[in-house]
Specification:
By secondary structure, the protein is mainly beta. It has two helices and 15 strands. The strands form four sheets. The chain has an eight-stranded antiparallel beta barrel with strand order 5-6-7-8-15-14-13-10. A hairpin with a 4-residue loop joins strand 13 (145-151) and strand 14. 29% of the residues are buried.
Length: 196
């Protein structure tokens, strides 16, 4: 795994791009929270993480490594293994790559105060295509539809994220990893059991 510095201004073909973690950093006081500041990030293959987040209400944060950050969505009901379930996914600010390892309690008075536990993690593979050609995950998300294959301990198989007027929708694709709720009602719901 290589270590990459992700702070400061990013340059792209001679023009400046703003810091993708600016919003993330502005919302946090790193002298009070143990969340990573994003000064250094460990990058390897494309990873995903789902974190159980007990803040004002229990929800699950889905994060996908895209373009050196974790693109992030709050999924109130958590991901499902049942393709019939359409889960609302509210996009949040980009997080630093090292947030994939973060577990702990965000102090009261801080943004997102509450307990964060890694619920599932692993590599993922982009499956998004346009006109028979694979397009990058960044381009797929920008256009509003991405498909990807998860290889976690709890979540496996294909998923799709689609942007709608209300937000994003996360759906399990119909594949050999899908479990219909009628087959096993317990298995397709997230369980609050801590680390995978």
């Amino acid at each position: 795994m290589s270590v990459k510095n992700v702070t400061g201004v990013l340059m792209n073909e001679g023009s400046q791009k703003s810091d993708p973690l600016k919003t993330y950093r502005e919302k946090r006081d790193f002298s009070l929270t143990s969340e990573p500041s994003g000064e250094r990030a460990v990058s390897g293959s494309c990873i995903f993480v789902v974190q159980e987040h007990r803040s004002r209400s229990l929800h699950y944060d889905l994060r996908l490594e895209v373009d050196d950050v974790l693109k992030s969505w709050a999924v109130p009901k958590g991901p499902s293994l049942d393709p019939r379930d359409k889960r609302l996914a509210i996009q949040t600010e980009d997080h630093p790559l090292e947030y994939a390892l973060f577990q702990g309690t965000i102090p009261q008075g801080q943004y997102g105060a509450g307990t964060v536990v890694v619920w599932d993690t692993g590599p993922y593979r982009n499956m998004t295509q346009k006109d028979g050609q694979e397009i990058s995950m960044g381009e797929a998300l920008h256009s509003g539809h991405a498909t990807f294959w998860l290889e976690g301990k709890r979540l496996k198989g294909g998923y799709a994220l689609t942007r709608t007027k209300r937000g994003w929708i996360l759906v399990k694709m119909k594949d050999e990893m899908a479990i219909a709720s009628s087959e096993n009602k317990e298995d397709h719901q997230p369980k609050s059991t801590g680390s995978p």
